[in-house]
Amino acid sequence: MKSNKKSSQIRKKKSELPFRLNLIFIIVVILLVTLIGRLAYLQIFNGSKYVADVDRTDTTVETSNVQRGEIYDSTGKVLVGNQSHQAIQYTKGVNVLSSTLRSTADRLSQYLKVSTATLSTQDEADYYLAKSSNLTKVENSIKNHSEYGTKALYNLAVEKVKKTVNLSKTEQNAAKIFSLMNGAYELSTVYLKESGVSNKEVAEIGEHLSELPGVKVGTSWSRDYPQGNSIKSIAGTVSSAKVGLPSDEVNILLAQGYSRNDSVGQSYLEKEYDSILKGTKSQTRVEVSGNSTVKKEVKQYAGKKGDNLVLSINAAFQQKIQQYTRSAVTSAGGESTGGYAVVMNPNTGAVIALAGVDRNTSTGKVTDNALGTINEPIVMGSVVKGAMVSGALMDGVISPTNSTMTDQPIKLAGTSSKASWFNKTGSANMRLTASTALEVSSNSYMMQLAMKEAGFNYSSGTSLLGMKSSIFTKMRGYFEQFGLGTYTGIDIPGESSGYKGPSGESNIGKALDLSFGNYDAYTTIQIAQYISTIANGGYRIAPHVVSQIRGTNSKGGLGTVEETIQPKILNYIDDTAAEKKVVTKGLYEVVHGTNTYKTGGSLASISPGISAKTGTAETTTNGKTTVTLSLASYAPSNDPKVVVAVAMPGLGESAETNNIELAKKIYSAYWKMVQSTSTLKNPTKATTASNKTATN
């Protein structure tokens, strides 16, 4: 019995085995079919979506601005620094919906107050429609709304809301925050409030950061001026992150790697050297998953603060010269329109001071305008006669050994006579060499040079109609070799090339005025470059106010020198040493000569001794007869180290020494504040130096 029972059990198990195998096979087949179906779904129907999700998971770089480089004076004083501020920032995620942005803005507005002064009706409408229920309601109210595409329908909704929107103060605050957030690019960081953030705002926002995706408490910087705001006219300005890139340059700057909300130098040094001052942005590697959430952030590069500029300008000296110039103009009164002074190293082009003020002739109000030295063309008068003599020597109409002519009134048919200041009637006719003509500032001599250069034979009473109008081009060509009437190349944007009066046969008489500086207009920096070219032996060097580019050390101060600005020679005056000596001798004798009519004798008290050319131009200001007093000078005469150029337009006819008195103060301050006379070669001989040729 037991054997039969056991056999029956074995037969039963054998009969169940195929069934179990079939069941397992069926289950496996079902699983395979399910797997294949799922793969088909993933790869065929949603493959592109998941590929995009994977791509979005790849590294994306988020950048943030760094502290801007600072500007120092020649002694290491900070002229333009950075003031840090607590700031609230926002980094926009990937594919963030408008409704999500509005929700974040609404929550943040409970703790943060921003200015709504620039909130537009477009901003208000976008904020209002970011709420889904509002958008649906407005779109449904538009007639035949189903006939429009998504974008067109939204634009119609915006226009409708603009006419009716009436946000509360609280909503306006949230709307402005929403606008700033909405304007950010994906994974770019913008300031929601970059200054004036209170400690309470920081604390409350910090407590709720988990509810405010993308919002951060950070730092912003603004420019400050420890030595006073007067340097701003030279340094220029920087746009705020709120303003962003200038609209007229936005495409160019975007192509250079800027972001729309970047701060950027807007004018002068800040603009000219922006690529150096702006620094290098920090870079953070951000991994974003397909559902738009940030998976990981890794700081790849901490960024580098902008490099610093060291100027050739001495801040204390600059302030002193500005003070002197303001005082000279204020005391001048009358129709004075301002005053300008440039102090420069003639051998390197380094600008040590740029001082200038404008004066409102109606109110008498005087305002600082140091950049008037580079952008205010002025009819300067006789200061240009050194260039006129040099041009005549190079043209060959006179020579160092044959330059004598008689100073006499120039009488031409159909016009009143033109004469030198000391010989209006012809009672003081005298024989002059080119050097003596400079000493006494002879207008007659310069006019005769112009006629000789034009190939015109002058005799009293003749007409100038036969004189070639090409003389304008010839004289101006020689003047430009010295920097008169052309760009000096200074490293500050916005300089003027001066003003050239009309030429041609109908204005041929003006060629004579041009010869002695009473026609074309030049800037004070051009006068400084011109006299520097004479002082250094014939090299026209571009003026510059930046002397070095330096990094930042571990303590935040000036670091290692990265670049030293070298003198930039623009051209060389190709005259002989003997021809150069004619001019330098004349400029020396303007101050130290023996002729009764020398024009700069009162400058002889300056020590070390200087060489100079004074200038007086006859002008008209507000319908009144006025004069411009100018001066071009260098010191010491035997080894020039510094030039001083001064221009004071719109003075009364009785003014005689305003330019000279200002120059005296400038030289006195220079030797006390900038360079000691102990550094000079034979400084005691400088006051008695004879007519030596200035060389490098």
From TrEMBL:
Keywords: Cell cycle, Cell division, Cell membrane, Cell shape, Cell wall biogenesis/degradation, Membrane, Peptidoglycan synthesis, Transmembrane, Transmembrane helix
Membrane topology, as annotated: Single-pass membrane protein
Superkingdom, natural source: Bacteria
Keyword Cell division assigned: yes
Segments traversing the membrane: 21-41
Compartment annotation: Cell membrane
Main localization of the protein described in the UniProt heading: membrane
Ranges for domain Penicillin-binding protein dimerisation: 65-295
A Pfam family reported for this protein in Swiss-Prot or TrEMBL: Transpeptidase
GO terms classed as biological process: cell division
Domain Penicillin-binding protein transpeptidase: 339-659
SUPFAM superfamilies to which the protein is assigned, alphabetical: beta-lactamase/transpeptidase-like (SSF56601), Penicillin binding protein dimerisation domain (SSF56519)
Family recorded in the similarity comment: Belongs to the transpeptidase family.
UniProt name for this protein: Cell division protein FtsI/penicillin-binding protein 2
Organism from which the protein derives: Pediococcus ethanolidurans
